[in-house]
Structures are given as structure tokens and as C-alpha cells.
Amino acid sequence: MLRKYRLEPLNGIGSALEFEWDSETGQLEGPDANVVKRFVEHAMRSGVGLGHPYPTPYDLKDPLHRPSELAVLLGNTFRLPPDLQAAYPKQPDDSTPDSALN
């Protein structure tokens, strides 16, 4: 099922990222679907994404089907909605409060 997203930039500068995504099929649609695809393509070249607590490396296998991986990719630049924030991977010693991801 496609879910609609509008992610605001963390720094408050620039445009929101608007897209629709189905994690089961990996389908992306909407005005910024190509931007999300470029994030994924760039990250898959190395197979690693850096995330919180920064700079923690996260292995990436299939961000278009794994919400935790897409959350890592988008969470450095955009405020994550509740479902992606909840999917964000936790490190065993992760003391970063969830509010830091907002």
C-alpha cells in the first residue's frame, strides 16, 4: 500500500520532500520520487549509510523494501514521520533520545 510522505528539512532550509512509497513492492511515486531514488542509488554504491548517533555506519541491502534503511538514508537531512522514526535502527548503546530524530 502506498503511503504518502511529506518530510521537512532538518535545517528548515529548502523544500519538503514529497513522495509516496510502498515498502512491500518498493514502489515510489510522487513529485520527489526521483530524489528518493537518487538517495538510494547513491547509498547503494557503497552499501553503507551513516546515521544516528552520527557517524554510525548501517549496512544497506534494500532501502526501498526496508523501512529502517530508508529511515537512515533520509533521517540525516529530513525530519522523519512517526512510522519511519519508529523503524530507525537502534544501537545497543544508543542513548540518543527519539526527540533528536525529529
Structure description:
- This protein is an alpha+beta fold.
- It has one domain (3-90).
- Helix content is 28%, strand content 22%.
- It has three helices and five strands; from the N terminus they run βββαββαα.
- The strands form two sheets. A three-stranded antiparallel β-sheet has the order 1-2-3, with helices on one face.
- β2 (17-22) and β3 form a beta hairpin.
- The relative contact order is 0.18.
Name the descriptors:
102 residues; alpha+beta; 3 helices; 28% helix; globular
The H/E string reads EEEHEEHH
Q: Which stretches are poorly predicted, pLDDT < 50 over at least 5 residues?
A: none
Please tell me the overall pLDDT: 91
| Count of individual domains | 1
Q: Helical segment tally? A: 3
Secondary structure: helix percent:
25-40%
Separation, N- and C-terminal Cα atoms? 25 Å
Largest sheet: 3 strands, antiparallel
Give the helix/strand class.
alpha+beta
| Biggest sheet, spatial arrangement of strands | 1-2-3
Strand content: 15-25%
Task: Count every beta strand, where a strand is a DSSP E run of 2 or more residues.
Answer: 5
- Overall shape: globular
Integer-rounded radius of gyration: 13 Å
Kindly summarize this structure in a few lines.
With about 100 residues, this protein is an alpha+beta fold.
List the helices and strands and how they pair.
Layout: E1 3-7, E2 17-22, E3 27-29, H1 33-46, E4 48-51, E5 56-59, H2 67-75, H3 82-87
Antiparallel strand pairs: 1-2, 2-3, 4-5
